[in-house]
Design brief:
Layout lengths: L1 H17 L3 H37 L2 E5 L5 H12 L4 E7 L1 H11 L4 H10 L7 E6 L5 H9 L3 H6 L3 E4 L1 H47 L1 H9 L4 H42 L3 H7 L1 H28 L2
Antiparallel strand pairs: 1-3, 1-4, 2-3
Helix pairs in contact: 1-10, 2-8, 2-10, 2-12, 8-10, 8-12, 10-11, 10-12
Length: 307
């Protein structure tokens, strides 16, 4: 009995879906646009995460020590910083390594290298580079080095300078960009989802109006509200399913084309990212499409049946 009812519900849902013509196409179009925007946001977040990772690799806190700073004290500070939960790693560069790096950077500058030779003594002190696990955590790390605490006070005499203030502008802009993209993306998706709900809601209401005599007969013979509602919810699910198929058929060649044209320029394999994350992206977008269709249909039928 259950399978017979299920077959009837699916058949009725398919019939309702097919016979609405232009209205059905409009509902699928709007839902497709919503799913396309959701997919674009997923892909853009992938590009953004890649760009953020690239920037984060270049952003750090560098602590430069005086030439008289004892190496044992520097290594002790390095060990202290490495134990901070927010710190990914701390790299120590000795004074000798600093000189070698300076020589490499100015390999073709004879006058600079000659001036360095005339100094006699090594003008560089050691340094440490600190990488945070997240860009929002640099300020907390900086407070440990230059704030009002025992670690900062003990090491203040051997620290020549800290470059956090110079990098803080970059770090703050990076964090602001991440926050704004997430907020704007969520807002745009919400607005389009709301429009889709309204369009599909209207479509289902028209479908109900066309089939009002059938619904009346079903109610007279004792059909439950759930049984009356089910075919329309199936129709709503079909809107989401067809929109997802159309959206996927567009985005697969589109991401391939964009990757071929700009993949090398941005240093990101957009097509490869889409394919490798298709189960996550596609599954999420399909869920959004089915959810929008089902919710819109449920609300429309519920209002009509007044249940």
């Amino acid at each position: 009995m259950f399978w017979v009812r299920l077959q009837r519900v699916l058949k009725s849902g398919w019939i309702n879906f097919r016979r609405n013509g232009l209205v059905t196409y409009a509902a699928i179009l709007v839902t497709t646009i919503t799913l396309a925007m959701a997919t674009s946001i997923f892909l853009f977040q992938g590009v953004l995460r890649h760009a953020i990772t690239e920037v984060q690799d270049k952003v750090d806190i560098a602590v430069y020590f005086t030439t008289t700073a004892p190496e044992e004290q520097i290594l002790e500070l390095q060990d202290t910083l490495q134990k901070i939960p927010e710190v990914a790693y701390v790299e120590y560069n000795s004074a000798d390594q600093q000189v070698l790096a300076f020589r490499d950077r100015h390999a073709g500058d004879y006058l600079t290298l000659q001036a360095l030779e005339e100094l006699g003594d090594n003008p560089f002190g050691g340094s440490i580079q600190i990488k945070a696990k997240d860009s929002t955590q640099y300020e907390a790390i900086a407070r440990v080095i230059e704030g009002d605490n025992d670690t900062a006070r003990q090491n203040a005499p051997i620290i020549e300078r800290i470059n956090y203030s110079q990098n803080k502008i970059v770090i703050d802009r990076l964090n602001s960009l991440i926050h704004n993209v997430r907020t704007i993306g969520a807002g745009v998706t919400f607005v389009l989802a709301l429009i889709s709900v309204v369009i599909v809601f209207t479509t289902v209401r028209l479908t109900i109006y066309i089939a009002k005599e059938e619904i009346g007969i079903m109610r007279l013979v004792g059909a439950s509200p759930a049984y009356v509602r089910a075919p329309f919810i199936v129709g709503g699910l079909l809107y989401g399913l067809f929109a997802f198929v159309i959206m996927t058929a567009i985005f697969l060649p589109l991401t391939y084309f964009l990757n071929a044209q700009a993949g090398t320029l941005i240093g990101f394999d957009l097509y490869g990212y889409y394919l490798s994350n298709f189960l996550v992206i596609g599954g999420s977008v399909l869920g959004i499409g089915l959810g929008l269709g089902a919710l819109s249909s449920y609300l429309a039928v519920r209002q009509y049946l007044n249940v």
